[in-house]
Structures are given as structure tokens and as C-alpha cells.
Design a protein that fits this description.
This protein is mainly beta. It has 2 helices and 13 strands, in the order H-H-E-E-E-E-E-E-E-E-E-E-E-E-E. About 35% of the residues are buried.
């Protein structure tokens, strides 16, 4: 019995000194199962949405992916991946669709991956994450861009919306090769992280586009 107590006491001291880990809270709804913050926090990889136990519960911005287009949005699309065999697949034929909130006609489609706490967010500011990295492969028709947003980004686009990355014909090209892209973050802005990863395909001109498709994989926060 004395030996058992001697073993238990040091273990209690160790666990009492452990910093609570919000990454564990994201995965296990408040149960912290590790200490500190990983240098690389993987949000999505090979068909696995690792940041929330509500893995496939994600809101879309418009009604486009209802029938007959529901197969054009998959979070675990088989047969294409940077790592493994599955990726996020997002496709759009360019048709106008209707905003899910107010019913207005829009020339974009998109969805958001939320953190576990969708109402108040999760505080990961102490993790000191400086970058959001992700990989993209696909094809976008003329005048269509892929837009990626995440909370805590440090810059704005010409649309005025919070910091984002957008594809174009230059350094941010989307084509048939897997390419890695980076969004720079402000760690202090990650106090109430709700919208972890936002994906939008949008038409940039007044004439209707032919849309396009993308595969997205290996999404992660890094220091």
C-alpha cells in the first residue's frame, strides 16, 4: 500500500501542473487529454476533420448543394488526396443560388468548418499559432476564384471582408497539381475562434460563370 501511495502522489503533482489543452476540448467536448499546444494543429487531413467532434455538421451559405447537386460537396471525397486517399471536394457549375439566411440570389457558394463551440468560440490564443496552411488542387473556370478565410487572419481583401486568401492567375494559382498556401495569423485574435476554415467559390464578374471545382487537404495551424 505504501508503494502504491508513493506512486500516486507524484502523478497527482504532474497532472496538477499540466496546462489545460483547448485542442483536447475541441476534440472531446471539454475533456483535456494532453498538455500544451502542438506545434502543428491539424484541422483536416485525409478525410478526417480533427478539430471538432461534430465532424460533418457544417453550415453552407447558399442552397446550391441541395438536390441535384448534393454530390458536389463532400468532406471525405474518395480517390483524391494529398495525404492518403480522401479530401474535401467542392464543385459548382456557376449557377446562381439563394442565400440560406435571407433568400437573396448570389453568385457564389461556400461553407464553414466551425470549432466545437459554435456560439462562443474556443480560446487558442496561447497557442501562438502564426499561420494557417492548406493544400489545393483543382480547376477554376475564367473569372472564378477560390476564397479561403479563417479567424485571426492579418489582412483584408478588396471586398473588405476579414483576412483571407484568394486564388488568382499569379502566385495563388489553382491547377491540377497539389500546391500549398499560407494565411498569416495574429495569435492574439484567436481568443474566440468560431469560424476555423471558410471555403468559397465565387464569380468575380457580372456575367454568369461556369464555376469550377477544388480538392482541399492537409489544413493545419502552425507556429
Amino acid at each position: 500500500m505504501k508503494k502504491l501511495l508513493l506512486l500516486i502522489i507524484p502523478m497527482l503533482v504532474i497532472f496538477a501542473g499540466c496546462e489545460k489543452n483547448p485542442i483536447g476540448a475541441l476534440l472531446y467536448n471539454g475533456i483535456n487529454q494532453s498538455t500544451g499546444y502542438p506545434d502543428t494543429w491539424v484541422l483536416y487531413r485525409d478525410g478526417n476533420l480533427m478539430a471538432s467532434k461534430n465532424s460533418f455538421d457544417f453550415p453552407t451559405f447558399t442552397d446550391y448543394w441541395h438536390a441535384p447537386h448534393q454530390g458536389e460537396l463532400e468532406l471525405a471525397h474518395a480517390g483524391e488526396s494529398y495525404t492518403g486517399s480522401k479530401s474535401i471536394y467542392v464543385a459548382w457549375n456557376g449557377d446562381k443560388s439563394y442565400d440560406n439566411n435571407d433568400g437573396t440570389e448570389q453568385d457564389y457558394v461556400g461553407f464553414v468548418i466551425n470549432s466545437e463551440n459554435k456560439e462562443y468560440g474556443i480560446d487558442v490564443s496561447s497557442g501562438a499559432y502564426r499561420y494557417m496552411k492548406f493544400r489545393v488542387k483543382g480547376h477554376l473556370n475564367a473569372n472564378v476564384v477560390l476564397r479561403v478565410e479563417t479567424q485571426g487572419a492579418d489582412r483584408y481583401t478588396m471586398s473588405g471582408a476579414p483576412g483571407a486568401w484568394e486564388s488568382n492567375a499569379g502566385a495563388n494559382i489553382v491547377d491540377g497539381t497539389w500546391r500549398e498556401y499560407t494565411i498569416t495569423l495574429v495569435p492574439s485574435s484567436l481568443v474566440a475562434l468560431k469560424d476555423m476554415f471558410v471555403i468559397v467559390l465565387r464569380n468575380t464578374i457580372s456575367v454568369q460563370s461556369n464555376g469550377g471545382y477544388v480538392h482541399i487537404d492537409d489544413i493545419r495551424f502552425t507556429k
